[in-house]
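Weekly sync, protein design subgroup
Attendees: M.S., D.O., the rotation student, P.L. (late)

Item 1: inverse folding check
M.S. brought a backbone from last month's batch and wanted to see whether the design step gives back something sensible before we order anything. D.O. pointed out we never logged the input encoding, so this time it goes straight into the notes. Structure tokens as presented (361 positions):
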């Protein structure tokens, strides 16, 4: 197991370096740098003025060198201002006359400065990841048990009416994008003129005009059932169908195995056969799928967070990409790559523990 983890971590580091370099190269293409110069200095800058601004801000060096500076493995660029004072990557936002470090990249904790929010990138990421973390937590709490229950029940009763109904529900939720299901849920539960809210208000069953809030902005300060239910349900519905279908397929295959038939012939109750013999083996494939939901939740909530005006990681990623905020966009890519690689590692390790044949091999 130790050498397995060592190999996986080595591959993870190489993959992270390759992916982050690709993102760094794409975000530092000349058109993006020209747009950055004009947005930070003046929109009426000439080409020579743009080149001068880029050179004075450390963007004239080769892209590999700038990537090393951004990582923190190459000394940061240095220069002098018009009045003779030293300047450079590591001098930014330091107190006057303070001694600048030689290395100041992400490995040293310096993730840069957001040109849009005018704040350190670390502060923006901490805030947005905190908001998205709560959203991911409640989505997983709702999605995983519901999906497993639907998949197990459907796989236990293959070909019955129960199986057909649950399978239809799973396919329908998976085939419905979040921007469609979100709008439908808002129209049904959070509209003052449509859905069930006007009827509930007319009979005095709710105090306000709507049953749920159609925006999750207030959830950033205080999460309640009424302001957080709709975004959670919107994301969970899409994932429930996918996990349920995988669980059903795995459960159906396991229930036809010879050891299940032997247990039934020995007189073991159907409940014990499912819980003690079939369920663990049936969860091997869904476990991998469940772990892959974490990267999807982190990067795939862009539509939902924008729809419900919830300023989490997805919303921050959209703002960074739309406003050419290079440092923030690079930081978001690092977080996304890290989450993907770590969840894949956990998935591989968990798969080994769930499947004794792989562990023994």
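Designed sequence read out in the meeting:
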């Amino acid at each position: 197991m130790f050498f397995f983890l060592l190999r996986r971590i080595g591959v993870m580091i190489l993959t992270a370096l390759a992916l982050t370099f690709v993102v760094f190269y794409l975000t530092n293409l000349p058109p993006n740098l020209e747009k950055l110069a004009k947005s930070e200095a003046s929109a009426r800058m000439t080409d020579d003025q743009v080149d001068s601004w880029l050179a004075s801000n450390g963007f004239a060096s080769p892209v590999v060198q700038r990537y090393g500076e951004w990582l923190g493995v190459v000394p940061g660029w240095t220069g002098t201002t018009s009045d003779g004072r030293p300047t450079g990557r590591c001098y930014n936002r330091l107190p006057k006359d303070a001694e600048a470090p030689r290395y100041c990249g992400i490995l040293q904790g310096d993730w840069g400065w957001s040109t849009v929010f005018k704040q350190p990138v670390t502060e923006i990421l901490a805030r947005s990841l905190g908001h998205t973390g709560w959203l991911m937590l409640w989505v997983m709490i709702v999605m995983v048990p519901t999906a497993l229950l639907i998949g197990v029940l459907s796989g236990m009763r293959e070909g019955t009416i129960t199986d057909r109904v649950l399978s239809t529900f799973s396919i329908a939720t998976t085939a419905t994008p979040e921007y469609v299901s979100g709008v439908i849920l808002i129209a049904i539960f959070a509209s003052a003129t449509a859905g069930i809210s006007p009827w509930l208000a007319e009979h005095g069953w709710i105090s306000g005009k709507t049953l749920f809030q159609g925006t999750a902005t207030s959830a950033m300060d205080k999460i309640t059932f009424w302001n957080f239910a709709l975004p959670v349900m919107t994301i969970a519905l899409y994932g429930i169908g996918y996990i349920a279908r995988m669980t059903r397929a795995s459960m159906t295959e396991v229930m036809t195995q010879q050891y299940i038939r032997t247990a039934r012939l020995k007189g073991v109750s159907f409940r014990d056969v499912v819980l003690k013999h079939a369920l663990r083996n049936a969860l091997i494939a869904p476990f991998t799928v469940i772990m892959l939901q974490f990267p999807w939740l982190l990067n795939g909530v862009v539509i939902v967070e924008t729809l419900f005006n919830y300023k989490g990681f997805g919303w921050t990623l959209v703002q960074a990409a739309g406003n050419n905020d290079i440092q923030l966009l690079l930081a978001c890519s690092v977080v996304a790559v890290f989450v993907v690689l770590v969840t894949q590692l956990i998935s591989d390790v968990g798969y080994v523990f769930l499947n004794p044949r792989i562990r023994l091999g």
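Discussion: Residues 121-156 form the longest helix (36 residues). DSSP finds 17 helices and two strands in the chain.
Action: P.L. to compare against the previous round before Friday.
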